[in-house]
Every structure is written in C-alpha cells, then in structure tokens.
Amino acid sequence: MRTMIRYGGLAILIAALVVLALLPFASSFVDDWAQRDVELRSQLVFAAAREQIEEMRAQGDAAALDALFGRIAADGRIAAIGLCEGGALTLATGGMPERFSCEAAPADEAAGPSPIALDGQAALVTAHALEANGVGAARLVILHDLAYIEERAGQARMALVLALVAVGFGGAAIASVLSIFILARWRHSVRQAIEDVREGRTEEQGPSDTQIAEEIKGALGELELARRQIDTVHTVWNPETLQVALANELPGSEVIVVSNREPYIHNRKDDGTIQVQRPASGLVSALEPVTRACGGTWIAHGSGSADRDSVDADDRVGVPPAKPTYTLRRLWLTDEEQDGYYYGFANEGLWPLCHIAFVRPIFRESDWRFYRSVNEKFAEAVVAEAKRPDPIVLIQDYHLALAPRMIRDRLPNATIITFWHIPWPNSETFGICPWKEEIIDGLLGSSILGFHTQFHCNNFIETVDRFMESRIDRESDSISLAGHETFVRPYPISIDWPPAALEGQAPVPETRTTVRERLGLSPDIKLGVGIERFDYTKGILDRMRGVDAFLTEYPDWKGRFCFAQVAAPTRAKLASYRNLQAEAEALADEINARHGADGWEPIKLLARHHEPDEVFELFRAADLCIVSSLHDGMNLVAKEFVASRDDEQGVLVLSAFAGASRELSEALIVNPYDAYAMGQVIHRALAMDSGEQRERMKVMREQVEAKNVYRWAGQMLLDAARLRKKERIMRLIDAKERRTDRKGERPTDRRRKPAA
Ligand code: G6P
C-alpha cells in the first residue's frame, strides 16, 4: 500500500508539472479562439445588415439607421455599433464610449479586430467598409464586449486543467499498479537468485540445476542399463531370477496382490477338522507361485467356511500353510454383497459380456451398487495394508475394475498394474454395458493395464476411443485420461515351471495303470481328459458332441476309448451354471446310451473339485487332452497338460478361440463349434505315433518353460520399474522446468511423456 501511495504521489506531481507546462499554450489557444469568434460574429452582423444600412444611408434616413443599430446592439455580446463617415463617428448606439475615435478602429475587415481599452474594460473593435453610394465612404464599426469572452475563456481553461488533472490521476493509477507489479517480480527474482545461491551451497535444501541434470543423466543411464539387462540377462525365468529382478529393479518395494479369489481356502469338513483347498482358478494357479517368490501381501475375499477361524486379529494368515512366504489378508463380504458384486455384476454381467459364448449378460442396478461398494472395500484394504506411499499393487481381473481408480485417488504414487484375465470384447459388444464409462475410468486409474493378447489390448483401446474423451497414443499404446497415463500391454499369462504339482508324481506308466484302475477302465484303453470348472465358456458340451461325432464316424473305437471330463462345480448359485451341469449330465447319459455297451461307457463325468496333484495325475495318465473353450483369455489347463508330460507324450487338442492357441501352435487346433471336425481331430490324435507326439510336445514344453509365469510377472514388474524410473526422471525434469520458469527462461516442451 505504501508503495502504491508513493508511486501515486509521484505520478500526480508529474501530472501537475505537465498541466503547468501546458497552461500557456492553453491560454493562447483560448485567445485565438476568442478573436476568431469576434471576427465571425462581426462578419455575420455586417452581412445581415449591410444592404439595409447602405440603403438607409443613401436615403439619409438617420432614424431608421439608429433603430437598426439599436436592434443589432441588443445582442449582449456586442457592446456598441457606430458609423464612421469621413473619419468621424456620426452615429452610434448608447454603449459607445464617449472617447471612442474612428482612428482607433481598423481600416476595414481585412485588418482584423483591434484591441481597445475603454474605461478600464478590454474590448475589440472591428470595422467594415460601406459603399459610398453617392453619400461618401463610411465604415461600420462594431465594438465587442470581451467580458463574456474572458468568462468563456476562463471556463475553457478550467475545463482544460480539469481534463489534464484527470489524465494525470489516471496515469498515476496505472503507473502505481504497473510499478507494484514490476517491483514484485523484481523482488521475486532477487529472492530466487539468493535462494539459488544458497541452494548451491546447502544440499539438503534441494538439488541445484547442475545436480538435477546429473541425476537425470544418472537415471537415464540406469534405465538404459535396465533395458539391456532385461533383454539379455533375464532370459531364464524362475523364482530366483524373479526375486533378483525385483531386488535389482525395484529395491525396497512393497508388493500387494489384490483379487477376489483367495489362493488358499480354509474349509471345515463334516468331522469338524479344517481342510485347506487350492481353488480351481487360472488366476490363482498363475499368481500363487509368483507371490510366493515375491513375498508381500495378497488381499482376497475370505470365502471358506473356516477362513475366519484361521486368521489373526488383523484378518491375516501366513501362506502357503506348510511354509509361509507371504501374507494372505482376508476381506469379509456379506451374503448380500457377494450376491450383488460377485454373482451378480461380475459373473452375470461382465463374465458373459467379455466372453462371446452367447449367454446374455444381465445388468442390474442393485448389483452395480454392490460392485462399486465392494471395490471400495478392496481399495480401502489396500490403503490399510500399504506400508509405503508408493506400493506396487497388482490388481487382478474383472471383479475389481473400479479399484485401480479408487486406489489411485488414495495413493497417487502407487504403481498399479491391473491384469484382466478374461478376454476384452470389441467396442460394439462392450457398448451394451450400462456402466461402460465407469468401468473404463476405473481401469484407467492403473499405471499398466495388461491383457493376455495384443488383440485384447487393441479391443480395449478401441473401446476407450469410442466411449471416452481421452488421448490415445497408438505408438506407445498408452491412454491419457485427466492427466494420468495408462500403458496397455499384452502379457501372456502362464504357469509355474517346473510346476509344483509335478513333485511326487509317479512315473507315467504307473500313473496310467493307477488312473485306469480308479476309473474302472481296462488297462489298455486310450484315455482322453478334459479338466476345468463347470463353466459354459469352456465348451464342455461341445467336446462331448465331438466324442459323439468321433464314435459315430469311427465305431471301431468303441470300447477302446474313454473320455473323462473332470468339472469342478463353480458359481452354482447361478442358473446358467446349474443348467450347464444338468445339461452336461444329460448329454453324457445320452451319448453313453447311444454308444456304450458291455459295461463300457465312452464318457465319464466327474463333477467334483480336484486338487492340483490329482489333476496332474490325470493329465499324465491321458493320451490326449481336450481344451475346447468357446472363448478364453489364455487357458492354463492347456499349459498345465503340456507341463505335466515330462515323458513328452500325449496330444493336446486346443480350441482356436483360447489365447493359448497363439503360443501352442503344435497342438491340434480345432473349432469347438464344429462337432464333426472335433471328431476328426480326436481320431487324428489317437492315431498319432509316438515320434510325432514327442516332436510336438517337446516344442510346446520349451515354449511353456521359457514363457512361464515368472516371465509373465517379471515383465510386468520390470515394465513397472521402467515406468517408475521414467516418472522419477519426469519429476526431475519438471522440477528443473519449474526453476527455469521462475527464472523467466523459456520452458522446454512439457508434452512429452515416458514410454513403458
Ligand atoms: C477365471 C477368472 C478368475 C477366477 C476363476 C475361477 O479364471 O478369470 O478370476 O478366479 O475363473 O472362478 P471363481 O469365480 O471360482 O473365482
């Protein structure tokens, strides 16, 4: 304020000086104007009265002239009017001073007005020559009263002074504001300069520009090194190399896995004892060995009947139960929540929406509300479990599409990697979801969003493009929404290698015998297996129809082949799943009735949960395995079958619509919708000689070994590490730019972004 007054006063002073300097010019301007006004009026009077005056003179009518002069002098601005004839004033109105002399008057109009002082009063006199008209030359003289001119000139001067004062004040105000602004910037620059000097000396107050530049150089170097290491060193992936990669690339980081399904379920048996179950879930098969290697915390829904009895006061339990290496944090859901969130929106809405299996998705507003609130619950659990502000959060699957955004809002520095374990449909299909925007927005809270295949990444990006206002960079496959960038990447999921379930397995010939005995089959019968959850996406009915077609086409195989279908009951609360089981049982009965004879039945339906070692035993006893998914993100059963066959025997029949068919091209690829073709493929598999089986199995095993689940996790974590390093560089560059901005230099381009 003081500055304002100071600068305002100065401006007023300057304005006053300007007014004083301009005043003389203003006076002369007013005088000139007054003279021109007198001349003009004088001319007007003369032009108007000339003819009459000359006529009256010619007629010698002095009385008329006198009357005319009187009327003219009635104008207040004309003091008097008179007639000079032969140098003498012969006629004049009453206002003419007695001492007026015609000699003092100008000779004519061209001479202009002459000033005259009469009785202490300033006046001007003008003269106009009249025609002689035989009565002698004469001049009309007009005496102008300057009092009014003085008065008007005074008014004009005053107006001019006021105008100059107003301009002065206005200028003063503008100058004050400008001066304050300039002073503030100048002070800021001085302070900044002092700060910079100080910062250069004391490191704890923040890095100097040189230090930042050094750090950026260092971080870029690290990044380049990391990239080279990833490409060269990490070719063999196993629990140890994953641990090393994590320790090297993300030192001290905290890993939190989040999924609906838990890796270990504690169930109470009828006899009251507790049994630990490994759920039939591709997600769990993949994530469990990875989490075992990485350590950390896995947050999941506690769905087992004895889960509450197996946790500590903080709802945590160390797992695997035999030798804990990580913490399972259980989250409890009410029946209502489970119905709305899990059975309803996730499994009746999103599951059929994303799998093109011709089951109509059901969307209920009440389910959606539970889906949202349960996602909130998971997000809060992540925040509660996080020991650092920047954990690495691995969010799993379609149950938790909203959680990434919710976690991002609470932990902005977290690195959130979301993996979508099921397919992502095309944008037209996804468009029917009433909450598509919310789901996409939720997922775009992630740092990295992973799908099994590039095809599903493309579908997702197209969906975002169609329904959201965002910036898509197709070169780096990234999407920016509200200032946050998400990288969309394919990470083909896989299994543990060598798989834990292989440990303790009997040799293949022994297993073949054991399993055949258990199933009541003759020792030399050829065995086909199918193992999965009782899910309509898996094509269980279709493969049975394939068996039917095979036996119809090749009846000499009757009695020599059996197809064992293991199907773990799943989501049985839903009619679509219950109906499938009933349908499968009816179809198996029908086919068995059609082809079976003498105690032999072609299809054995085993509708119960099998633990991983039982599954592996079945795989090893089989001659062929059928995976006939109508649509599947990846399908790990196919990879598990390959992994189980260390004897390099057995044939995999694989659906063209499972993601795994892209990697396991040595399988016999089939269209599950074509029963006849399936029958032909079964025949081909049974006829395949051991040499060809070995060739195919070897290549597939190499593929699964190299691209195992540690590689899957390792690539995601290394991408996360690269992203973190790039974010660190961006923060450093931003800090440098802020500094540059403060110093008034031109900032560099802020629009660039890191590529994962
Ligand atoms: C699929 C899903 C997993 C799920 C699994 C088993 O593989 O992608 O998220 O865990 O099915 O289903 P469930 O409903 O029993 O967890």
From TrEMBL:
Q: Which UniProt keywords apply?
A: Membrane, Transmembrane, Transmembrane helix
* Comp. bias intervals (Basic and acidic residues): 734-748
Q: Extract the GO molecular function terms from the UniProt entry.
A: alpha,alpha-trehalose-phosphate synthase (UDP-forming) activity
Q: Does the keyword Translocase apply?
A: no
Record's SUPFAM superfamilies?
UDP-Glycosyltransferase/glycogen phosphorylase (SSF53756)
Span list, region Disordered: 734-756
Which Pfam families does UniProt cross-reference here?
A: Glyco_transf_20 (PF00982)
Which GO biological-process labels does this protein carry? trehalose biosynthetic process
InterPro entries in the record, alphabetically?
Answer: Glyco_trans_20
Membrane-crossing residue ranges in chain numbering: 158-184
Membership in a protein family: Belongs to the glycosyltransferase 20 family.
Q: What is this protein called?
A: Trehalose-6-phosphate synthase
Query: Origin organism of this chain?
Result: Salinarimonas ramus
